[in-house]
């Protein structure tokens, strides 16, 4: 049980502030900035101007059994027991239909060296492009869910769909985590993925760019203790 909680915590760390993005596209027009009545901040309107978001590569099979990938940032950890993640996809995406039919998907999390692959599979459609062939990445058939994962990505989450929720322009797929697989190189002595070893990256919808994650700021308990000791 301790090990399961550790996996959940590392996923939550990688997730950061989790809303999402689907295939580098925006469904909203950018409103004009407005003054804050309080005079301290600029109102950006009702839009997804939230940073950072994720860059999860989602694996699925299509109706013909062909493995497919797409990148989603409208995503994140959504439950601890049972451990689960959420991805938000537009119905127009090829992956949306794949997951609806197969009731499974994988989340593939890579380091900075894999950012270009995440960028590519988020910008072309699986309807017209075999993304594994185009990128040279290697599909691996999951033994526990009906979806492929990417051999080259060091952290993989295998999920079965337990619920879908229609939320405006996107369908939210709730995926119960069946297993998490990791390359030994990103694990510490306790068998937990380490951010410094994985070197994951995040996405900024406003700039359309990927960003690396900086050094650790400190343990949460230690940072909180400084407020208790010193005051605000």
List keywords for this structure.
Pnp Oxidase, Chain A, two-stranded antiparallel ribbon, globular, alpha+beta, 13 strands, single chain, 232 residues, six-stranded antiparallel β-barrel
Helical residue percent band: 10-25%
Largest sheet: 6 strands, antiparallel, barrel
The CATH superfamily name is: Electron Transport, Fmn-binding Protein, Chain A
Number of β-strand runs: 13
Secondary-structure element series = HEEEEEEHEHHEEEEHEEH
Strand order of the largest sheet: 4-5-6-11-10-7
Number of domains: 1
CATH architecture: Roll
CATH topology: Pnp Oxidase, Chain A
* Whole-number mean pLDDT: 89
Basic shape: globular
**What CATH first level would be assigned?**
Mainly Beta
Rg, Cα atoms, Å: 18 Å
Beta-strand percentage? 25-35%
Q: Could you list the spans in which at least 5 consecutive residues all have pLDDT below 50?
A: 13-22
Count of helix runs: 6
Cα end-to-end separation = 36 Å
Assign the structural class, choosing from mainly alpha, mainly beta, alpha/beta, alpha+beta, or little secondary structure: alpha+beta
């Amino acid at each position: 049980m301790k090990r399961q909680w550790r996996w959940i915590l590392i996923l939550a760390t990688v997730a950061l502030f989790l809303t999402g993005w689907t295939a580098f596209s925006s469904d909203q027009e950018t409103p004009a900035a407005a003054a804050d009545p309080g005079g301290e901040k600029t109102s950006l309107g009702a839009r997804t101007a939230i940073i950072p978001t994720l860059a999860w590569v989602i694996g699925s099979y299509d109706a013909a059994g062909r493995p497919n990938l797409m990148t989603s940032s409208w995503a994140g950890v959504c439950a601890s027991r049972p451990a689960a993640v959420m991805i938000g996809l537009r119905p127009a995406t090829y992956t949306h239909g794949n997951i609806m039919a197969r009731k499974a998907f994988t989340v593939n999390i890579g380091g900075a060296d894999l950012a270009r692959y995440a960028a590519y599979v988020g910008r072309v459609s699986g309807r017209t492009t075999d993304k594994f062939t185009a990128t040279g990445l290697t599909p691996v058939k999951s033994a526990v869910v009906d979806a492929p994962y990417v051999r080259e990505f060091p952290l993989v989450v295998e999920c079965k769909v337990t619920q879908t929720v229609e939320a405006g322009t996107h369908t939210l797929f709730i995926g119960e985590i069946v297993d998490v697989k990791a390359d030994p190189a990103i694990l510490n002595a306790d068998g937990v993925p380490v951010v410094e070893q994985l070197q994951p990256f995040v996405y900024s919808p406003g700039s359309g760019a990927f960003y690396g994650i900086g050094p650790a700021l400190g343990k949460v308990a230690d940072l909180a203790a400084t407020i208790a000791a010193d005051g605000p």
